[in-house]
User: Which sequence fits this backbone?
């Protein structure tokens, strides 16, 4: 994201001033990449949203996102969403933001929650008409008032209980393209007494205090950035005075501060617990420390107070090189982009070096005191993702198993022997409900092994799965060490739907693969499935295209290696593969499972 | 700086016009950019600059800039 990102707590008059300047003179004031297609966002609300829309546009702009925003009429949600001919549908947004507040609800008893849910679900299913749309639905900040007083929490039909129940149902029942924006959390953190500004609601129908606009816009910007643009993958940590107090080289593995009976030690343990929670949701952990490797590893092995263990770290980089070079090394050895790394180091000088030489890395402003580390990392929202899939929860372990695999590799005489010993089992098939979310995630996240870098939203993929001229093929893999889940996504399209080709051609619209499974024969395994599917479509030729980007150089000659021959074309890099009668399967070490 | 001078700065800032000189009789009709939208912005900016909070009735009763100054003085204890 751009370096000029705004904080969540900027003063409202400053924000409005900047927002107005942006509207007046976008050429001069904008920090977004205006050469790209703008992201189309519709904002609809039951209350006044004019000021909020301006502020949101500003936050998105400072995050580098160029937008075209449609602002609904006052209290215009029903008008826009339920009417098929409304301006909203003409606008064709990529994202629709639905902003509501507790005063819109009509709930007196538990069953009324059902009616509110039914209303919201009806809105979402109407919005489904917009292909591939993402909906940002606010949940409900419960008000300060308590008609039942201290008894609110004792009765299911109290105002607070009903709102809690509705919020929980949003969490449990939202479809995958609906992202719930947690206004209840934001209002609690801000303080509900300040969040609700009744005077400005009665006077000008502001849904929440104007002072909170920055906080809400910041949250929505993070979500939109994660859904449509960029996500970070790996947290890179320093050790001394970051993961523990003191210097392991001087104090020894048992002398560092990580003791639960000591307040300072507790603060570092608090941070380690948070880091472990990040790892469990799929964030990869790495270490970047100026230390002798053996000395640096000692606390993880010898000090039982450590919450993080050596096995939690996917890439352990302790040496005397400069930290910027180490960042490059970490990205390379984990096979992820350097722009997906987040750096956390208590030493401001090290942070500066990384900022200067690796500007793509997200560098956290680490506070002086360890007790504030969790808050600083949490507020930076560096790991805002569109979703957390089953694969994510298992991922960071699979990076660690990778290291073990590497170890095993060195004990084999040749690579084939090694691949055989991995006992790989693969599965491929057409995408169904179970694979949809992950298929969308991988398709939109992978940059390196990606032939055409086509991005499709979950909604679009669901539509393609229903289309008889399109095939969405997934490949999943397990081996002796771990289950990877879906690691390759391929989209095939009948040729007559693509310019220049016919109905006997099968065009590979997209082919991407997770770099975690490079050099394992997954490509060959997948290609067998592609050929089979193309035959089933009645095609006699497969067409592949390579669209170069800054990041996908590794697959430049992929089709040539797979046995395709180049097609003459001035503008595009195209290849063909003729399907004849003889069925030649590519040999792989992946055992096919049904 | 007295309330009027400070308020004048807020006006210049909100309406992005360095030539504004507020007077007691001035109303929304006297400044082109003063509409319902910028009015909300003006009230927030004044609340921020003078560190006070206006009630529904107080904002509704405002007839001109002079009354605004009196209100601010009352809220901040200058009157």
Assistant:
């Amino acid at each position: 994201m751009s370096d000029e990102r705004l904080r969540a707590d900027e003063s409202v008059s400053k924000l409005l001033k900047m927002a107005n300047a942006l509207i007046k003179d976008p050429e001069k004031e904008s920090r977004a990449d205006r050469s790209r297609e703008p992201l189309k966002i519709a904002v609809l609300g039951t209350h006044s949203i004019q000021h909020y829309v301006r502020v949101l546009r500003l936050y998105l702009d400072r995050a580098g996102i160029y937008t075209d925003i449609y602002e609904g009429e006052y209290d215009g949600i029903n008008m826009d969403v339920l009417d098929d001919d409304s301006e909203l549908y003409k606008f064709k947004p990529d994202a629709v933001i639905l902003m509501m507040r507790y005063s819109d609800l009509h709930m007196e008893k538990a069953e009324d929650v059902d009616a509110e849910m039914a209303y919201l679900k009806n809105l979402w299913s109407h919005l489904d008409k917009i292909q591939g749309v993402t909906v940002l639905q606010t949940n409900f900040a419960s008000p300060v008032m308590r008609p039942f007083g201290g008894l609110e929490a004792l009765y299911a039909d109290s105002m607070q209980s009903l709102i809690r129940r509705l919020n929980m149902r949003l969490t449990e029942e939202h479809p995958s393209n609906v992202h719930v924006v947690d206004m209840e959390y934001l209002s609690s953190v801000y303080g509900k007494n300040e969040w609700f500004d009744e005077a400005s609601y009665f006077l000008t129908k502001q849904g929440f205090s104007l002072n909170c606009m920055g906080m809400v816009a910041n949250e929505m910007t993070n979500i939109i950035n994660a859904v449509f643009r960029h996500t970070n993958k790996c947290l890179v940590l320093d050790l001394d005075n970051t993961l523990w107090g003191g210097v392991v080289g001087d104090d020894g593995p048992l002398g560092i501060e990580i003791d639960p009976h000591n307040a300072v030690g507790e603060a570092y343990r608090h941070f380690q617990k948070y880091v472990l929670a990040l790892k469990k949701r799929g964030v990869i952990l790495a270490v970047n420390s100026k230390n002798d490797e053996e000395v640096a590893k000692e606390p993880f092995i010898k000090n039982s107070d450590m919450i993080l263990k050596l096995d939690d770290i996917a890439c352990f980089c302790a040496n005397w090189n400069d930290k910027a070079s180490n960042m490059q090394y970490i990205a390379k050895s984990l096979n992820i982009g350097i722009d997906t790394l987040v750096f956390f180091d208590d030493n401001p000088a090290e942070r500066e070096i990384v900022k200067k030489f690796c500007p793509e890395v997200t560098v956290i402003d680490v506070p002086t005191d360890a007790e504030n580390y969790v808050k600083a990392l949490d507020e930076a929202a560096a790991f805002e993702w569109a979703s957390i899939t089953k694969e994510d929860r298992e991922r960071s372990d699979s990076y660690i198993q990778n290291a073990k695999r590497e170890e095993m590799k060195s004990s084999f005489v040749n690579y084939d022997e090694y691949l055989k010993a991995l006992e790989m089992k693969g599965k491929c098939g057409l995408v169904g409900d179970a694979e949809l979310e992950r298929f969308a995630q991988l398709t939109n996240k992978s940059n390196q092994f990606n032939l055409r870098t086509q991005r499709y939203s979950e909604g679009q993929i669901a539509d393609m799965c229903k289309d008889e001229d399109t095939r969405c093929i997934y490949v999943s893999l397990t081996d002796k060490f771990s289950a990877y889940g879906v690691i390759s996504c391929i989209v095939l399209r009948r040729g007559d739907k693509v310019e220049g080709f016919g109905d006997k051609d099968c065009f590979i619209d997209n082919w991407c693969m997770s770099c975690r499974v490079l050099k394992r024969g997954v490509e060959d395994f997948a290609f067998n499935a592609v050929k089979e599917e193309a035959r089933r479509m009645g095609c006699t030729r497969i067409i592949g295209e390579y669209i170069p980007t800054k990041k996908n150089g590794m697959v430049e000659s992929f089709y040539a290696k797979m046995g395709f021959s180049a097609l003459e074309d001035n503008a595009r890099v195209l290849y063909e593969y003729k399907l004849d009668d003889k069925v030649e399967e590519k040999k792989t070490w992946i055992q096919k499972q049904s | 700086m007295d309330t009027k001078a400070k308020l004048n700065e807020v006006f210049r800032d909100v309406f992005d016009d360095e030539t504004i000189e507020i007077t007691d009789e001035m109303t929304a009709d006297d400044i082109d950019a003063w509409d319902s939208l910028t009015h909300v912005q003006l009230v927030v900016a004044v609340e921020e600059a003078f560190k006070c909070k206006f009630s529904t009735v107080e904002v509704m009763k405002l007839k001109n800039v002079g009354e605004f100054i009196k209100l601010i003085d009352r809220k901040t204890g200058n009157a």
About this structure: Helices of chain B lie at 3-15, 36-50, 56-61, 65-76. Chain B is about 60% helix and 0% strand. The first helix of chain B runs from residue 3 to 15.
